[in-house]
Design brief:
7-stranded antiparallel β-sheet; Heat Shock Protein 90; disordered C terminus; 18 strands; alpha/beta; about 425 residues
């Protein structure tokens, strides 16, 4: 017998700690007692993850699962509203109030045919008036869900739900599976991937994900492989956030008030989530009023076709705590171009070519000139095929970020425009 006590408050800001500390991989013996009676609040991601995990315990591990909840409490009532108990065979309460304008109930998705109806319900909550933008968001949701069905290897399929909070204007969408994870899914096409973190970094680049066929959503049929890329761009541009967790790695991405993309990576201490989950938060008003968001996404996708290394640059907000990570503190040789070139040749390139994770830490560097960035990174970007999976750039000021992007842009100019290692400007 195993008794699982759900914490008192499982809110959005606790997601990282929840991911890092929860022991989902424990071998639980029957019966599994899950107790929500001490819980005051549950965020949508928590409801979805518990639903997926308990479904897996029942359907795959054949464990007896007993759920205890005070249905008159805030958390218990929310479990009722989300269809949590219905997912485990209970009939809906006769006096239950349905709110399809606010909640898309927990839905188990096991076939491709079940995806469009769920996506349509989510779009009804989002209420995007622009037809093209609606198409892009719906395409992204469909691709995200189709990945669960086609590539996750999850024997329970996926569990998904969506929730609208009118006071904040947030629409939260979560989908979770218990499957092979992103790394295994991508290994056939990218055998060089060695860690879950590398796989997450790669999966969110444009034209990498193998999850979408050309006949699934006609309006976007030429954009296969752009689902996760579109989702993270839409989330950051519309002041939302996007969490993507797979096995032991988690990506936390959000948009700043200035419209810049911010990102963190975290590793779990206890094995992480036993599959993959995605948690998307969109501000409905921001999306509805952001007229240029689709144009931005399409332009980024077009640029990615021309200059893949530029879009592969992975800017993060802090150096992650990862065993074996190679961290280069750029401030130690700031503006010394000879030292930068030596670091590039002796440390950065050999490490990347060996499949190791490298972080260039620009902490305390207020402004890096293009000449210095050129010495440090030009050759890495020019010759790198999948640097998005192996190289990250931490703690950049806006000015330094612009310098890096400028170097990345001309690193992919045709050879005829370049003399040696320097562009003809």
């Amino acid at each position: 017998m195993f008794h699982l006590n759900v914490p008192a408050n499982v809110v959005d800001k606790e997601l990282i700690r929840f991911f890092q500390g929860w022991r989902w991989h424990a071998d639980l013996q029957s019966p599994v007692e899950v107790d929500f009676r001490g819980c005051n609040f549950l965020a949508p991601y928590a409801v979805t993850l518990f639903a997926a995990y308990l479904t897996w315990l029942k359907k795959v591990k054949k464990r007896a699962v007993r759920i205890h909840a005070n249905r008159n409490s805030v958390a218990g009532n929310y479990l009722v509203e989300t269809g949590f108990f219905e997912l485990f065979g209970e009939k809906p309460a006769p006096d239950a109030v349905e709110r399809p304008d606010r909640t898309v109930k927990l839905t188990r998705i096991t076939t491709s045919a079940e995806i469009p109806s769920f996506a349509t319900k989510v779009m009804e909550i989002l209420r995007i008036e622009d037809e093209e933008l609606e198409g892009a968001v719906k395409y992204s949701l469909i691709e995200l869900l189709r990945n669960v069905v086609q590539h996750s290897g999850s024997r329970i399929g996926g569990i998904a739900m969506a929730q609208y909070y009118p006071n904040s204007g947030l629409v939260n969408l979560c989908v979770a599976d218990i499957g092979v994870g992103v790394k295994v899914s991508l290994t056939e096409a990218y055998p060089e991937l060695e860690t879950d973190l590398q796989a997450l970094k790669l999966a969110t680049l444009p034209h990498v994900s193998r999850t979408f066929g050309p006949a699934t959503y006609t309006a976007m049929r030429d954009n296969a492989g752009l689902g996760l890329f579109f989702i993270k761009q839409i989330a950051s541009l519309a002041a939302g956030s996007f969490f993507l967790g797979s096995k032991e790695a988690l990506m936390d991405l959000w948009g700043s008030e200035e419209g810049q993309q911010k990102k963190l990576y975290k590793l779990a201490r206890n094995g992480g989530w036993p599959g993959t989950f995605a948690y998307l938060q969109l501000r409905r008003d921001s999306i509805a009023e952001f007229d240029g968001i689709l144009t931005v996404c399409r332009n980024l996708a077009a640029e990615a076709r021309k200059y893949p290394a530029e879009l592969a640059l992975d800017f993060i907000e802090e150096v992650p705590e990862i065993p074996g990570l190679i961290v280069i503190k750029v401030a130690q040789f700031e503006e010394d171009v000879e030292a930068a070139a030596n670091c590039r040749e002796s440390i950065i390139l050999p490490s990347i070519n060996g499949g190791k994770l490298v972080v260039l830490d620009f902490n305390t560097v207020r402004f890096a000139t293009q000449s210095f960035v050129h010495a440090l990174m030009y050759k890495v970007i020019r010759d790198g095929q999948q640097i998005g999976a192996t190289l990250s750039i931490a703690n950049c000021t806006n000015a330094t970020r612009e310098a890096i992007m400028a170097v990345a842009a001309y690193a992919k100019i045709t050879p005829e425009a370049v003399i040696g290692d320097r562009p003809r400007f």
